Amino acid sequence: MAGLTLRGLRKNYGAVEVIKGIDLDVADRDFVVFVGPSGCGKSTLLRMIAGLEKITAGDLVIDGQRANEVDPSDRGLAMVFQSYALYPHMTVAENMGFALKIGGMAAAERAAKVKAAADVLQLAHLLDRRPKELSGGQRQRVAIGRAIVRNPKVFLFDEPLSNLDAALRVNMRLELMRLHQQLKATMIYVTHDQTEAMTMANKIVVLNGGHIEQVGSPMELYRNPANSFVATFIGSPKMNMLDLPVEAADRQGLRFALGNGRGLTVPVDGSGLRPGETARLGIRPEHLKPAAAGPFTGEAAIIEHLGGLTILHVDLGRAGMLVVQAEGDDRTGLGARLVLDVDPALCHVFDATGRALRRVAVREAA
Amino acid sequence: MAGLTLRGLRKNYGAVEVIKGIDLDVADRDFVVFVGPSGCGKSTLLRMIAGLEKITAGDLVIDGQRANEVDPSDRGLAMVFQSYALYPHMTVAENMGFALKIGGMAAAERAAKVKAAADVLQLAHLLDRRPKELSGGQRQRVAIGRAIVRNPKVFLFDEPLSNLDAALRVNMRLELMRLHQQLKATMIYVTHDQTEAMTMANKIVVLNGGHIEQVGSPMELYRNPANSFVATFIGSPKMNMLDLPVEAADRQGLRFALGNGRGLTVPVDGSGLRPGETARLGIRPEHLKPAAAGPFTGEAAIIEHLGGLTILHVDLGRAGMLVVQAEGDDRTGLGARLVLDVDPALCHVFDATGRALRRVAVREAA
Amino acid sequence: RRVRAQERAEISFASAAFFGSETFGDLAKAYNEAQDRVKVTYINLPPPSSSTEVYQGLVQQLARRTGTPDVFSQDVIWIAGFAAAGWALPLDEYFPADKRGDYFPGTIAACTYGGKLTALPWFLDTGMLYYRKDLVDKHGGKAPTTWDELTEMASAAQKAKEVEFGYVWQGKQAEVLICDAVEVIGSNKGAILSPDGKSCTINSPEGVAAIQFLHDTINKTKISPKDVLSWDEEPSRQPFTAGQSMFMRNWSYAYPISQDAKVSQIAGKVGVAPLPAFAGGKSSACLGGYQLGVNANSKKREAAIDFLTWLSSAETQRRIAINFGLGPTRPALYKDQKIASENPFMAGLEPVFSGATPRPVTPDYAKVTLALQSGLSKALLSGEVKKELDAVADRVNTIVGG
Amino acid sequence: MTDIAVLPGERPKPAARALSSALGPWLLLVPAFVSLASVSFYPILNGLWLSLTNTSLITQESDFVGFRNYAELWADPQFWNAWGHTIWFTFASTALETLIGLAMALILYEGFTGRGFVRAAMLVPWAMPTVVTSKMFGWLFDGQHGIVNWLLLEFGVIDQKVNWYGSPDTALTTIIVADVWKTAPFMALLLLAGLQTVPKSLVEAARMDGAKAWTVFWHIRLPLLMPTLLIAGLFRALDAFRIFDLVYVLTGGGPADSTETLSTLSYKVLFSTLSFGYGSAVSTAMFVTEGLIALVFCLFLVRQIRRAG
Amino acid sequence: MKSDRPLVQSLALYVGAVLILFWSAAPFLWQFSTSFQLDRELTAATPRLWPDPFTLEHYYNAFVGKQLHRYVWNSLVVSLATTALCLLVGSLAAFSLSRLDIKGRFGILVVILSVSMFPQIAIVGPLYLVASNLGLLDTYTALVITYLALGLPLVTWVLFGYFETLPREIDEAARMDGVGLLGLLFRVILPMSLPSLVTTGLLAFITAWNEFLFALAFTSDINRQTIPVGIANFTNQYYVPWGDIAAASAVVTVPLIILVLFFQRHIIEGLTQGGVKE
Ligand SMILES: Nc1ncnc2c1ncn2[C@@H]1O[C@H](COP(=O)(O)OP(=O)(O)OP(=O)(O)O)[C@@H](O)[C@H]1O
Ligand SMILES: Nc1ncnc2c1ncn2[C@@H]1O[C@H](COP(=O)(O)OP(=O)(O)OP(=O)(O)O)[C@@H](O)[C@H]1O
Ligand SMILES: [Mg+2]
Ligand SMILES: [Mg+2]
């Protein structure tokens, strides 16, 4: 098992630059998730690491050695494809043993390795089937098994769960996490689903338009997003964003003017902003609570009951909409008038460029 | 707009019965969601209503008239397909106007109708594009637009969102709900995603193996699932199920023996069960709370931080695993020992056939 | 006029398509314009290079016995078959013996089956020896009359490196091989079939010696390249007109080509002569060309005969000789001034045509020729001439005897 | 949207539509069947019948003789000679076309500048009329003036001109070359289409598994291409089995019957000797042999499809 | 993608491409060059690759002497009519087999295909008789009918394969939109199948354009004969005017080459995948 370092990695397709200089360290046994909107370059970056795309500029260092020109099969990586890419003409066992066979391993040894991997993935009873005789989840596990038998330094996954249905997706997610612990392997995982990123990663890399927006642990990103992109991308339902005029701002705090004559002071370093300018206030849905008094007032426009949770879409009128995540089965009726309160210490403020203002007197949220 | 009635609807493919007698009433302006696992017959049922599959037995009544033999295009329904099924060789406007053109409507009138529908869906600027020049969400809206222009009695949707990514799916979900209110239309919607069902439906039909498991409003199903199938299918994370020995049972309650010498009495009509038999205890993850004392003790095996929520997988040892949904950002560490409590009035009990035991002294959950 | 048009007897005429400065369609038109008794419709068949298709097309029409076409043209080798099937009207009463004297005797013989004249000669062609005048002058002065002379002169020229090949002929497994064989065998006093047409005599000593000679030209005297075994007319013509060969056996069509400077490297140096013979034998030339016939089921017999007579008349034959370059079947025309001035080469062909020999006359010719082609090809290739000819003689005997 | 106008559903059209929907599919097949029946079925049945008679245009006979023609065929060395040539021709040209077509397809599958042009050039032989091709090959392989001999001599491959069509050793081979030239592009086209259905991710997965170009081809692309290969091979084999024009124009079956194929034989029997009875027996025997070839291919195909799906 | 290949591999690729070019185009180019050379040069001891002297005589001969343009016209009429009919009839059949619930549709496909296995040699004779009885000899009709049947099996097969890849949901959407059976085919399926129509159209066109045997049997009138027959007719009695034939071949092949060049992409597309990529 091993670490991985990316230094100024770039990729051009003709004149178009798709990956615009990526620097990243992946430590041994990390579970790194690349997340970002569609087309941001996640797959491309992963494929560059795998060796399936040529690197235009920069260095890829695997285990201390520059690997830009190393053949995919010699990098000691294994990849699991979104479409699984199982060989349809081979049985499960043959699929899993193919790499070993090519590597020249003796049949007996190969069978043993395949058996071992199949046991880990509970595939032992399926070894003689062909891919078309398997369910989606089973195929997924075969694809992983094919990676496992090679005993790679690093596992690469490209949206491996996106072809599965919701229930199966949750199961496979857990299974992958279990596997990560069991194999003590380094894993790099691509997804556009922030839930997957949040639950699986110990390090999330948020990509956007070919560059890194932020790197950090899930809760770091959740609590301290570096900019409004990360803030809205991470967390579901996504963070409410209100563009509001600044009433006062200094190093210790920033006061927003709310339409109704009231204000809200957020403890951030507002020294770069002046009164009268507009800044963006970010509030996570679960931090808004119905209360007797509070800075926001509106009426419930849409109510989504999820059973254990209720999502309220509150229309503030001119100021926009707020999404509120209420616990349990909230009984608020459609059209009901709601007053919402929020702990200012949990709010985020972003300047015109989208950069987050530094929190002062950091207080952790509950 | 109109209602719909299904009476003993059946469908055979050769010797295999796929739909095994469905009775259902859909009222005007209902938003009915068919939900169930893959292969349970949702699509088949929807397609029988649409007229795309022949009805083997039973009656389909639309607006008071038997419609079994009516041609699909004459039933006054419109369908939105999972793959959108847009005509690739036509522009958006042509796609939307095609049914009207076939119906012989004059060009000017047609254009007006298409324009009106496009406005509703914010597609007006895309009318001259072809499907392949559209994003997934835009295609989805064109598919809906194609349905809208026909001014149908009932809209039928077959998993219309499953090809979209998570963020878009949430947006389109809201848009569909808005549309339902705006058009005041009757809608029948097929999905296998219980979240969609919960948030969109005013009536959920849970299908399984070709028959109806339960019909009701989302919260009805959530609170009072008729059987263990519905109980686990509805709600996410799904309901914990523990098979436990019955210590005592009567009309007023049922007491489970928990391994550790403690017990849990659930207020259900346990008169059909005897001590010593096994029954299934169902507890929703959000009803389990860490507490100083409680019936369950275990250690945190997997922890999923979702930001606003934390999902704990607690290993009870021999009794199995419990999934706990904790609010906010729970700080429980991996391997931590947890004691969990639950309000017995919120628990469910199912007998050996999976049928839910009737609750006594019904008390609503928070 | 319309009335008169209705009174005219309408007949049809089918023929393979020959090309020239006019077509046979034009001939029919000329006839229609020349008189007002008969009106001819021309049915165009494929060109003679697709003779199998021509044959098939003709047979299918004749076999239906509907009387269409009333008049048709035919290759020499079909005459016996058509006559035996009763499709061809015997013409003896219209062309008594005195009238037949105007034609080459060989062609009249070919038109006769079972003692009856069933076809009328139209135009003609035979195999002939082409030679390089310049080289012949050098190596003996006059065209060879025996195969030995030919071999000698050819070898001499080859040795002197004046030409690559001495003699080119046609050995492809095709109809032309039979023609070449008929000629050598005939020039050795042999024949492929007995005079009654009921047995095969190709494996007689004369026949074997003749075929052995052909084999020797390739393998022993080496005056011929082994390519001749895959050559029919055109491939053999090309090296000759390219100046690579001293002698060539070919039909008359090659003459104008070899004298055309645009195509030929040896224009002006080409002579033609009757094919040589073996010592004691006499030159023999395979008869080709087309003959005319009248459908036995024709309902307009008189009109058909009228047209037939016109087609074969000296006047029309002259026209064909000039406009199509095809040799007349009337010896008299070879002295004709007009032909001589338009197509000067023709005059020299008379002696060649005089020696024309028909191919085996049998109604089963189609089967016989296939067997012969195969057998001769094997004999020439393997060199086991006697053995192969014995074998093919057996096969032919079962065809013609049975 | 709220105006509930007259719904289009009120148009009644019960019986007519039901009928047309039941009969519709068959009605749509009618033109194809009429066409095939009139041009193919009738002659085939006619041929089957004729093969049981001694019909000959020349002898004017047409009597039922049972299986006498087939008995005669069975004992006819010419038939078996032609049969052998035809089978060999079919096998050799199909195999070569497959190999060359596959190589072409593999090259043209890869992206490189000018690929479109090369793809189009590849199809040239296929688009040329067979009549032209055969004349052209007669010309190219001419023993004396052929450019092939000239080139081979120039490059010292041979030391004297080869008489390609005049020697039994080379005649059939040369015809096979001509046929391969003409039809390999068609094969390449089908295989190219087949290659494009092999998902790219499989090839990438194999590369990750350590497979080099050759291994990828041998273990991934080829097995997945197998059904296409078999179908294309079947089409080609059946077509090759009927080879006629090339042989007829180039050698006429010679020398010494060494290039006689079933088509040329049956052509000669049918149209030169006009023995329709015997000739039809030859063509029916051809048909039967083709059926057997098709059967072998189909067996392989079914196995393949079962396996790979 | 292109740059991702190692040098050796690119090199091999280009060598392969050049070989294909040479193998495919060289014979034709040689033929093309022949058409500009004097007949005399063709039989010279050393072949000339470049025409010298250059002559257009063969083209003159072909068009003026042999009236090639008439054959070209006939071929065009016959081939285009065949193509159109093949596409129409073939798409009806393929549509019915692919879209409608016909039992034993694979059996029907196999029958259609097996019909094309019968040796054409054996069909010519009977058909000639039929055609002549119906007075169809020397008509375009006879040729078109025959070529239709010759082209139909492959056209149906390819179109069937293509239709099978088009999603059924499109049909169903159209049915919901009120389209009838033929409307579905002509307004929805066919417009979506353009690549495949191009491919099959080309297949049918080339089949008809190149066919020789039937054309020879059915036509004897220069006003109805097609190019292959015309070229065969160039050979008079024995004389084969190589230069003229080469010229005629060039004339008939070049348009096909241009056609193929133009449609090259669609040809392969038409054989592979359905047009709808979501
Ligand atoms: N072969 C290519 N040629 C040109 N551009 C390409 C190519 N492959 C990808 N791109 C572009 O590169 C960008 C990144 O693509 P990539 O597939 O890495 O996105 P992604 O983040 O994986 O998206 P998704 O979540 O949709 O898979 C996209 O804008 C895409 O259009
Ligand atoms: N044409 C058919 N012939 C035979 N069985 C069929 C056919 N179509 C569907 N089925 C069967 O009917 C059952 C119901 O299929 P259906 O497509 O309605 O499921 P579904 O609930 O829509 O599933 P999914 O969520 O996967 O779309 C399945 O078991 C399926 O295998
Ligand atoms: Mg991707
Ligand atoms: Mg479905």
UniProtKB/TrEMBL annotation, chains A, B:
Membrane topology designation: Peripheral membrane protein
Annotated GO MF terms: ABC-type maltose transporter activity; ATP binding; ATP hydrolysis activity
Cellular compartments per GO CC: ATP-binding cassette (ABC) transporter complex, substrate-binding subunit-containing; maltose transport complex
Source superkingdom: Bacteria
SUPFAM superfamilies tied to this protein: MOP-like, P-loop containing nucleoside triphosphate hydrolases
Coiled coil, from the record: none
PANTHER family tied to this protein: MALTODEXTRIN IMPORT ATP-BINDING PROTEIN MSMX, MALTOSE_MALTODEXTRIN IMPORT ATP-BINDING PROTEIN MALK
Family to which the UniProt record says this protein belongs: Belongs to the ABC transporter superfamily.
Protein name: Sugar ABC transporter ATP-binding protein
Organism: Aureimonas endophytica
From TrEMBL, chain D:
Main location: membrane
A biological process term (GO) from this entry: transmembrane transport
SUPFAM superfamilies named among the record's database cross-references: MetI-like
Gene3D superfamilies assigned to the protein according to its UniProt record, in alphabetical order: MetI-like
Taxonomic placement: Bacteria, Pseudomonadati, Pseudomonadota, Alphaproteobacteria, Hyphomicrobiales
Location relative to the cell: Cell membrane
TM regions (residue ranges): 26-45, 87-109, 121-141, 171-195, 216-238, 276-302
Protein name: Sugar ABC transporter permease
Superkingdom, natural source: Bacteria
Source organism: Aureimonas endophytica
UniProtKB/TrEMBL annotation, chain E:
Gene Ontology BP annotations: transmembrane transport
Domain ABC transmembrane type-1: 72-263
Highest rank taxon of the organism: Bacteria
Keyword terms of this UniProt record: Cell membrane, Membrane, Transmembrane, Transmembrane helix, Transport
Membrane-spanning segments: 12-30, 71-94, 106-128, 140-163, 184-209, 245-263
InterPro entries named in the record: BP-dep_ABC_trans_perm, MetI-like, MetI-like_sf
PROSITE patterns to which the protein is assigned, alphabetical: ABC_TM1
GO CC terms of this entry: plasma membrane
Membrane topology value: Multi-pass membrane protein
Entry's localization field: Cell membrane
Entry's family note: Belongs to the binding-protein-dependent transport system permease family.
PANTHER family membership: INNER MEMBRANE ABC TRANSPORTER PERMEASE PROTEIN YCJP (PTHR32243:SF18), MALTOSE TRANSPORT SYSTEM PERMEASE-RELATED (PTHR32243)
Protein name listed in UniProt: ABC transporter permease
